[in-house]
Design goal:
Blueprint lengths: L4 H14 L3 H12 L15 H8 L3 H10 L7 H12 L3 H15 L3
Helix pairs in contact: 1-2, 4-6, 5-6
Length: 109
C-alpha cells in the first residue's frame, strides 16, 4: 500500500462500488477534495486551525504553502519535521503535528 493508506483505502472502496479504474477514482477523489470550502484538502488535519495558530503562529494554509514551496518537501516525514525545527524554530511536538497535518491535507498520509 502507498504511504497514503487512508486515501488509498477510500479509492479502493469506491473502485469496488463503481467498477471505475484506479486512476479515474483517484482523480475524482482528489477533484472532490478541491472544493473551495475544503481549501483543496484531501483529508482534514487532526488539529484545528485555531490550535495551530495559537501554538505555532501560522495557520494550516500558511504551513502548507511554506512546506510546499520548500524544495526538500518530498524528502519524507522525518526531514520535513526536522526542517521545521531547524529553520522555523518549531518545538519538536508541534513540528511532528504540523508535518502529519500537512501530509493529511496534501494526501500523503
Amino acid at each position: 500500500m502507498t504511504r497514503n493508506g487512508s486515501f488509498e483505502r477510500r479509492v479502493r472502496a469506491r473502485m469496488a462500488e463503481t467498477a471505475e479504474t484506479h486512476d479515474a477514482v483517484r482523480r475524482t477523489t482528489i477533484d472532490q477534495a478541491e472544493d473551495p470550502d475544503d481549501r483543496g484538502r484531501v483529508s482534514q488535519p487532526e488539529h484545528t486551525d485555531e490550535a495551530i495558530v495559537t501554538n505555532t503562529g501560522r495557520s494550516w494554509d500558511q504551513w502548507r504553502e511554506l512546506i510546499d514551496t520548500w524544495p526538500g518537501h518530498d524528502a519524507g516525514h522525518r526531514e520535513v519535521a526536522a526542517w521545521l525545527q531547524r529553520e522555523h524554530d518549531v518545538d519538536g511536538w508541534w513540528a511532528q503535528a504540523i508535518t502529519v497535518g500537512w501530509e493529511r491535507i496534501t494526501g500523503r498520509r
